[in-house]
Every structure is written in C-alpha cells, then in structure tokens.
Design a protein that fits this description.
Elements (H helix, E strand, L loop, with lengths): L1 E3 L8 E4 L5 E4 L21 H10 L24 E4 L9 E4 L4 H6 L1 H4 L8 E3 L8 H13 L5 H9 L7 H13 L3 H12 L8 H13 L3 H13 L6 H12 L6 H14 L7 H12 L7 H16 L6 H12 L6 H13 L6 H14 L2 H13 L6 H13 L3 H15 L4 H13 L3 H13 L6 H14 L2 H14 L4 H13 L3 H13 L7 H14 L2 H14 L5 H13 L14 H12 L3 E4 L6 E6 L5 H13 L15 E3 L7 H7 L11 H4 L2 H11 E3 L5 E6 L2 H13 L5 E5 L2 E6 L2 H10 L8 H4 L2 H9 L1
Helix pairs in contact: 5-7, 6-7, 7-8, 8-9, 8-10, 9-10, 10-11, 10-12, 12-13, 13-14, 14-15, 14-16, 16-17, 16-18, 17-18, 18-19, 18-20, 19-20, 20-21, 20-22, 21-22, 22-23, 22-24, 23-24, 24-25, 24-26, 25-26, 26-27, 29-33, 35-37
Amino acid sequence: MIATRACDFSSPLSSASPSGAFVTVTIPNFNFFSPSLNPNIIRHRSSSSRRLLRRLSFSRNETQSFPLPFAANSASHRSRTFVEHVAGTPHQTIEVYDFGDLESARNDLRNVATRRVETDVEVREIEDLPEEWRRSKLAWLCKEVPSHKAVTLVRLLNAQKKWVRQEDATYICVHCTRIRENETGFRVYRWMTQQNWYRFDFGLATKLADFLGKERKFTKCREVFDDIMNQGRVPSESTFHILVVAYLSSSEEGCFEEACSVYNRMIQLGGYRPRLSLHNSLFRALVSKQGGPSSDDVRQAEFIFHNVVTTGLEVQKDIYSGLIWLHSCQDEVDIERINYLREEMRKAGFEESKEVVVSLLRAYAKEGGVEEVERTWLELLGLDCGIPSQAFVYKIEAYAKVGDFARALGIFREMEKQLGGATVSGYHKIIEVVCKVHQVELAESLLEEFVETGKKQLLPSYVEIVKMYFDLGSHEKLEKAFVECLEKCQPNQTIYNIYLDSLVNIGNLERAGDVFDEMKNNGTINVNARSCNTVLKGYLDSGNHVKAKKIYELMSLKKYEVQTPLMEKLDYILSLVRKEVKKPLSMKLSKEQREVLVGLLLGGLRVESDRERKSHKIMFEFREKSQAHLILRQHIHDQFREWLPHSEEEDIPLEFSSISHSCFGFYADNFWPNGRPEIPKLIHRWLSPESLAYWYMYSGYRTSSGDVILRLKGSVEGVEKVVKALRAKSMECRVKKKGNVFWIGLQGTNSVLFWKLIEPHVLDDMKDYLRPAYEAIDTDGD
C-alpha cells in the first residue's frame, strides 16, 4: 500500500515532542499529482520512508496542529475594491477599501498544510495486484473513463460492477485527479457512493473536494463537503478555505451567503483560525454587495472583525472604515459602537479618511445632531479633498429633523453652487423637506427645476408633492400632479392610493370606482388592503350597499383585513340579507397558491426551516433589472398577502419572506429537504398548467429566436423526471447544463404547444415579454 498526497511539503515541519521541545523534520518535495509523472504508475517508496510518513500522519479530525505563527500575507495589499458610498452623479465619491484579493487567499493555501498534516489517500499499485486480468481491466478503465461524458461513463462503470471493488474505484478516482480530470473523478466518486460495498473514505473525499474547489466547481465541491459533514466528520481546514474562496469567486446569486455560512462553520464547528487573507476577502465581498447593507450584513462584518482581533491578526485601516460605513447605513445607528471603532483606529495609528468622515456625517444626520454634523463638516473641509454630493444631502437631512427648513434650503443652494448643479438625491431630499412644512410655492418651483434638468427618477418627488396636496385638501392640484406623473414616469401603487383617497374624500365615487378598476386590472399596480378599505368606506358612507358587498367579497377572496369601523357597518348590512360575515383571514393555502408555489419553487424560490424542521418560511426574491420580475413581484405579494408579516410600508421590496408556518412543511420536505434544492420524485403529478406558467414567468425567458427556455436546479435524476413529464404532455425538449443549473429548451412547435398550455395563467402584462415567436406564425397560418 502506497500513500499519495496532494500537497507539496517543501519546508521543514515542526512537531512537538512529549517533552515540549520541537523536532524539525525536513521532507523533500513530493508532488504525486504532477503532470510529468506517468499517470498509470505510482512510484514505490522504501519501507523507511513509509514508516516516516506513518509517524508524521495524523487523523483529520484531531485538533493537534503545528505551532507556527500567523502572519499577514503581504499579497493582501495588492488590489483594491470599490464600494459606492454615494449615488448617482458625476460628482459622486467612491469609498476605497483595501482588503486584499482572492488571489492572496488562494496563495495562503500553500501555508495551510504546514499547520495541519493531511490525511493520506491510500491506493494500491497496479503492479501489486495479483490477478493479471484485473490489472489489464483497471488500466483499460483508467484510459477510457476520462474520454466519456457523464451518462456514458455511468453505463461504462455499471458494466464493470461484477468485478470492481472500492480499491479499484478509488484508484480510478485518484488517477483522474492526477491528470487534472477532476470532474470525471467526481463522477466516479459519486458512482462509488451509490454502490452497496462503498465505505466512506475521508482522505479521498477531502482531496477531491479540494481539487474541485480550486477549479471553482463550488457546487460539486459543496456536495463532497456535505458528504463529509453527513458522516459526522469535520472537513479539513484547506477544504473550508478552498470552498469559501470558490464561492467568493462566483457572481451567481446566493454564493456570498453560502461563503459566509461555510466561513462561520469553519470557525464555530471546526475550531480553525483562518488566514488573514480569507478574513479580508470575505469582508471585501461584504462591503461590495449591491444594495444597502442589512442588519445581517453588520452582524457578519462584526463576526469577521471579532475573529481577526481575537486571533491576533493585524486589523487593517480599511476594515475599520468599512465597519463604520456599514453601521452608518443602518436605520438605527449605534453611535457608541462607531465611536469605539474610531478610538481603536486612533490607537492603531490610523487617521480618519474622507470615507470615514462622510460615514460619521450620515450617522449624526440620522440622529438629528446638528452640532455633531457641523463639527464633522468642519473636519471634512479640513481634509481638503473635496466635498461629496451625498455629504450635502446628509446635512440637509440633519437640519430637516430639527425643523430648520430655511437652513436646509440654503445648504441645497450651496450644493448647486459648489457642484455646478444638484444631484437627484439632493432634489429628492429638499422637496421632501419643504413638502413636510407645506411650503407649496417653493415645492412646486423645486419640482419644476427638477423636471427641467432632464434627470430621471421623478416619482419620489411627485409622491411627496401629492401627499402635501392631500394634507392641504387641494384636490385639483393633486389631480393635476397625478396626471403629470402618469405622463413623465411610471406611477406606483402609493401615488394611486393617495389619489384614490382624495377622490373618496370629495365624494367622487364614480371616478374612484374607475381608478380602482384600473388599479385592479393593471398587474404592475394592483390593489391592496388600503385601496380596498378606501373604496369600501366610500360606498358604505354613500349607502351604496350593492357595490360595498362586491368590494367585501373581493377582500374576502384576497383575504384582506377589513378595518374595524367598517366591519361594524358591514355586520348590519349583511345581516339584512341573513348573511354572516366571514373572517377574511384563513391560514390555509388555497389551491391556486399551492400551484403557484410549485412553479416558483421549480424556478429557484427558497424555503428556510428552523432547526427542528417544524416551522418553515418562503423566501421570495426578485431581480431588479428584470421587467418581468417587477410585474410578477406585485402580483405574488398580493397573492400571498395574508402569509406575509404586517408592514406599514407600501413599497414592495425586491426580497421579502412569509411568516414561519407548518403549512409550508410539505414544500420544505419535497423541494428543500436538506437545505438544498431538490426536484421531488412525484413532480410529474404536480406540473399543472398553472405551475408551469409561474415557473416560466419566474425563471424562464424567450430567446431572440423565439424559443422558450426554463431554468431548473436539482439532480440529473430530477431533471429527467421533469423532461418525462413534459414529454407526456406531447412536448419534446432539450437539456443543457451550465454550472449547477440546468436549462430546458422548447423549440419550434414545442414552444407553441407549451405556450397554448400556459397562456390562460400568464399575467396579461407579461404576455408580450414571454410569448414565443412561433405562436404568432402559427396563429397567422390558422
């Protein structure tokens, strides 16, 4: 038996003797996976070298490690990352954070082996096998396996089941990794795990995971990683490190969250101390995330900071700056924590940069501390590096909080003077300020200036203007602003609701009913509980009981909650016709909701479960750049409203979640059984036309040639079940795999059949985006 190893040991290893002294053993370079070696031969070692390696080998899950000091990698200073600190204009400033790059994290893998000795993968020489027929067959398999694709490879291995043993399959797998055919090695490994003679091999799983991760095959690397975890073993430090770097190297959705999860396990479960470059790479990705940082991001950043400090590594200046920036972006700012970080920066000998001072300005402005804002402003001026546009906005916000709108307006004019024009965020803030104090003429003139600049994103300012007119009871001006908004930008549900409130207040119920119907029929706007209650109140007050009952039936269907004063009037009206008022809320999924969930889950919707898997919640996620998603988001939010946590905000976020409930257990068990997406065995029973429609709307698209493409995650076996289900509906399709995603294509007449099946369930506003080109041709032919 000869041990092969994936690591190069080119430096002395220090091992602690029982007496406490250190013994240094120098080991020559052994690189058994070098391409210069014969792939079919593993060289013999002398018996003395075998005994030496046995003495130096430790089990993977032992906590003994070599006492080498932790030193920051100088390569961590080689590259920079840019985080948007302010938005939107040529005058914006960019925060620069230097946390090192992923390359430095990869380079640190060379040093990981010196801190924990690797477990050997033991394979037997072909020449040592007693049977000549086995030697020839094994050599033939080593030659044939890398040249075949997945399906043919499995058939080839299945044909050899009668004689292949675990030792033989292990040799083939190791051979594939030695010749850099790591994906083929993974397929052989996966085939091995399905055989009844398979016994888990920790060393083989570790080497395979490491090689796959180095090639950025994070999905397959994670599968092997999970195999190790499912065996009750703790993966090696190198495996944790490589998997985190692989996730960070990908721009796919959800990879950053997975990187954080693996990093946290590395420390909490494995008890490892990651290299400084890994801490920096993860922190760099954290502050570079798109969108505003959430409270979860702050907690993760604090965890990284805590680990860097407690392990005695050097905390770089940009870590302090990034952490202060994250805290300043929160709705509730922790000023004490920010001041503590500033003090730590001073102790470390770092001066506060412009980015830190701007972050402080933001934090103090949210607190309404004018004195602190002025003092910070002077610090910013003292840096003599230019004032970013967003700093003016923060200062305007600070004075607005204390009610000094005149001073806020003066700052806005100063911004125009120094920057050569105000930014979009500047106009939004100053119009919001003057509207709150009901300065009508000033607000109108500012809005007119804003429109004349030709800048986009006018909607927030129109919403503020319309709110002001509503508070003042000026319906004519409100209606005029509403019509202007329809002409200049795409309105949203918020401005429609304000206009609807105004119509009901003045008693124009006929126009209110028309606007309500327009909202209901428009998928991008739609109605909500507020608009229904507004119209219901108008009909009840006017004595129009027939229309009031229709609105109530709509609210019951959509499971909206009726306001208490209106419910008392409804009780009396419905009692006249001996009809009991039903409670509009019922915590049971409707048939339509169940079919919608199946389609969305096929499209990639996530389900999160608690530790006991007794309660589950649905994680709804939509893409901002997808017009189809913006339309679908409103519809889904409305469809599952009773399952969502109560929120006062009318704007629907791109990501929201349902409440935790046991009703979602069926979907968690079938689609996310182990926290990973799976395709259920009985999926063919649940692929109704409505489910297919929502799958297509959520994660499908129409190609430039007019074909239909559906996105799907899961195993090969699960994809085959979906394909068979589509073929049972007389639709042929083609499947391609890219990364961990399968793409199912329906071409020509098959796309037409698919569209005819799902068209009744596709939202009207999305049909133009999704209708196949062949469908129009087919219609003309008829």
